[in-house]
Specification:
Blueprint lengths: L2 E5 L2 E3 L5 E8 L8 E6 L5 E7 L6 E3 L7 E6 L4 E6 L8 E6 L8 E5 L2
Parallel strand pairs: 2-10
Antiparallel strand pairs: 1-3, 3-8, 4-5, 4-9, 5-6, 7-8, 9-10
Length: about 110
């Protein structure tokens, strides 16, 4: 069955960086576009970024554009989210998705 396992979250200071990873299994990873989304406490799910199946194009929410970079390694069945210039409002549970399934998420907290 499809499994998506996120990792790499943690505590970062404002202005700091974190790199999230999402390891995928149970489907033909290279055939699917992937997305990252996040959910802060008390708020709805917010789409963050997406990447084509071959990695040829990425798209970002305005709230993270210029600060976050999404990439993928189809040989390793893994997608990444490099997060720079972090802000407190980036604090959330981050999920990766194949647009049908999602993992359990990894917590990102940005605080001084």
């Amino acid at each position: 069955q499809v499994q998506l396992v996120e990792s790499g979250g943690g505590l970062a200071q404002p202005g700091g960086s974190l790199r999230l990873s999402c390891s995928a299994s149970g489907f033909t990873f290279s055939s699917f576009a992937m997305t990252w989304a996040r959910q802060a406490p008390g708020k709805g799910l917010e789409w963050v970024s997406g990447i084509y199946n071959d990695g040829s194009a990425t798209v970002y929410a305005d709230s993270v554009k210029g600060r976050f970079t999404m990439s993928r390694d189809n040989a390793q069945n893994t997608v990444y989210l490099q997060m720079n210039s972090l802000k407190p409002e980036d604090s959330a549970l981050y999920y990766c998705s194949d647009n049908t399934h999602r993992g359990h998420g990894t917590q990102v907290t940005v605080s001084s």
